[in-house]
Design a protein that fits this description.
This protein is 42% helix and 23% strand. By secondary structure, it is an alpha/beta fold. It has 3 domains: 84 residues, Winged helix-like DNA-binding domain superfamily/Winged helix DNA-binding domain (Arc Repressor Mutant, subunit A, Orthogonal Bundle); 95 residues, Periplasmic binding protein-like II (D-Maltodextrin-Binding Protein, domain 2), CATH 3.40.190.10; 101 residues, D-Maltodextrin-Binding Protein, domain 2. Strands 3, 4, 5, 6, 7, 10, 11 and 12 form an 8-stranded mixed sheet that branches. A two-stranded antiparallel sheet has the order 1-2. A two-stranded parallel ribbon has the order 8-9. Strand 1 and strand 2 form a beta hairpin. Helix 6 crosses helix 10. Keywords: DNA-binding, Transcription, Transcription regulation. Belongs to the LysR transcriptional regulatory family. Pfam families: HTH_1 (PF00126), LysR_substrate (PF03466). This is LysR family transcriptional regulator.
């Protein structure tokens, strides 16, 4: 074999092999009859074998042509199937979306958007990874996540942030606590009761600590836990109170708890879409973000 046959040559061979007529075969592949004949001759030259016995009355496959026929069908079929898959991917109708996100976003923002998206994109799979803000940034920068839903990064080196929603901080206490009857409470109340805080790596903890410092409150957490649902359970057990953004309440059993807006000052964390600067999103990821923007 002198060189590899092209898909075009294989398609020309298949058309002639199946129709046994060069004129009809040329019409099928939308070329002139001389062009079709040249493609078949090129295939024969490359294989150094005659593929058809032909005269003015009939066209028949040679033994070499019969051997090539199932191979050509398989190669051409796989080629067109692959092109179809690629077209589906480019159009955003097929593929995989990897999303890194804060746990609160995973619970409160994404499931509804995923449901709406899957109704129109059933061939797209979504991998959701709830992690802390620090790891969210890492996932986006190293490319293991197409995008993330998180708070704005402290530094945006290599990252782009699009605001999506403001998440209000509230004071969480047990339903039997006198605070539960108030319409709002000041951040200073956190210095008056035992404080149950989330872990140091949490964006919740970092924002709460910054606000309390700005208010001149010297507050030492009595209890600390990286798992926000456990923080809620500790508050429900009467161990103290906590400052938590509303979206994170989706991760907590609130049946025995109350959430009161925190004021003086009122504080919200801005959450949004985090992407890597200069990196194009796959079509499916871009389509999902369009759905998400409409849902929030």
């Amino acid at each position: 074999m002198r060189s590899t046959l092209t898909v075009h040559e294989l398609e020309a061979f298949l058309a002639v092999a199946e129709l046994r007529n060069f004129r009809l075969a040329a019409e099928r592949v939308h070329v002139s009859q001389p062009a079709l004949s040249r493609s078949v001759q090129s295939a024969e030259h490359k294989l150094d074998a005659r593929l058809f016995d032909r005269n003015t009355r009939r066209v028949e496959l040679t033994r070499e042509g019969e051997e090539l026929l199932p191979i050509a069908r398989r190669i051409v079929g796989e080629f067109h199937d692959s092109l179809s898959d690629l077209s589906e991917f480019v159009a955003g109708r097929r593929g995989r979306i990897a999303i890194a996100c804060l746990p609160s976003a995973a619970a409160a923002l994404l499931p509804r958007a995923m449901s709406v998206f899957q109704a129109t994109h059933p061939r797209v799979t979504i991998a959701l990874e709830p992690v802390s803000a620090e790891f969210v940034r890492t996932r986006v920068l190293d490319g293991s996540a197409d995008f993330a839903i998180s708070v704005a990064p402290p530094r945006q080196d290599g990252l782009a942030f699009e605001p999506l929603i403001s998440d209000e901080f509230v004071c969480v206490c047990s339903r039997g606590d006198p605070l539960a009857s108030r319409r709002r409470v000041s951040w200073s109340v956190l210095a008056e009761r035992p404080l149950v805080a989330s872990g140091p790596a949490s964006s919740i903890r970092q924002i709460a600590d910054r606000v309390m410092a700005q208010c001149g409150l010297a507050v030492q957490a009595r209890y600390e836990c990286a798992n926000i649902s456990v923080v809620g359970a500790m508050v429900a057990a009467g161990l103290g109170i906590a400052a938590i953004p509303r979206l994170a309440l989706r991760l907590i059993d609130m049946s025995a708890l109350a959430a009161i807006p925190l004021a003086s000052p009122g504080v919200s964390r801005e959450m949004g879409i985090l992407t890597r600067s200069g990196r194009s999103l796959p079509a499916a990821a871009g389509s999902f973000l369009e759905v998400l923007r409409r849902q929030v």
